[in-house]
Amino acid sequence: MHDWENYVVSLNGKPVSINVDLGLASIAPVLEDSFVIILRVKMNQLDARGMPTDAEAEELLKMEEALVTMLARQSGATLAGRFTQRGIREFYFYAPDTLGFRKGVNQSMQPFSGHEWLSQAKKDSKWENYFSVLYPGKLDKFRIESRRNLADLSRAGLIRQGPMLVEYFFDFHELESMKRFLSSPELTGFEIFSLPNKPAAAQQTYALILRKKEEPDYPWIESHLVPLYTTAAKNSGVFVGWQRVLK
Predict the structure, then answer these.
(1) Would the pLDDT of 39 be above 90?
(2) What DSSP letter does each residue of the chain carry, written as one string?
(3) Which of 108, 134, 160 is the last residue of a domain?
(4) What is the pTM of this model?
(5) In terms of domains, do 148 and 60 share one?
(6) CATH code of 170's domain
(7) Domain membership of residue 174 as a residue range
(8) 22 shares its domain with 128
(9) What pLDDT score was predicted for residue 159?
């Protein structure tokens, strides 16, 4: 099942925009599609951050649509994602072989002769390019899940109702690590809802649940949730997620 998501990371102070089909992670690596096709395109119209202008973005979208159609036809390839940085966009496809990829790329790029590009195809049976280049790391995955959680609350009309009670879920492998986490300055104002004195039998972790009244919005993810995530990690813990408390 396809599950497309876009997220932005910073590399040497410059933004890198990544668009990836997260749904592929549940089935990857696909043994039948053990070759990666990579097309690198030099963009022509950039803003100050090295990202495409609106006109360039529209051209790149048309390019992507042509590539998806032709590479699927010529080599049975599937688009896994793309990344954009410093005037470059790279497309990543996975295919069962490399036989028709050059023909597919050449035909796709004919209407875009004003762009410089190069392509390659190589064995990638473990889908290393997908997981190392495109797929988000743990913190970025947490950010994505938090944004989706906020979007669900917004669609339900709950964001505009003022402060809401939020539950925060953490897992710790050691009791002392959990205690150090609870003494952190970032935990000021939180109510301890569930404080285990022994690990859960199934996961062998201490499942801590905190509560706090919040007015969540998208900046709140960076200002509040990310510091909690980082502090939990420093204390050998995992910020599993959060949810609105249903009354």
Answers:
(1) yes
(2) ---EEEEEEEETTEEEEEEEEGGGGGT-S-TT--EEEEEEEE-SSB-TTSPBPHHHHHHHHHHHHHHHHHHHHHH--EEEEEEEETTEEEEEEEES-STTHHHHHHHHHGGGTTS-EEEEEEE-TT-HHIIIIIS--HHHHHHHHHHHHHHHHHHTT-GGG--EEEEEEEEESSHHHHHHHHTSGGGTT-EEEE--SS--TTT-SEEEEEEEEE---HHHIIIIIHHHHHHHHHTTEEEEEEEEPP-
(3) 134
(4) 0.90
(5) no
(6) 3.30.70.970
(7) 138-244
(8) yes
(9) 77
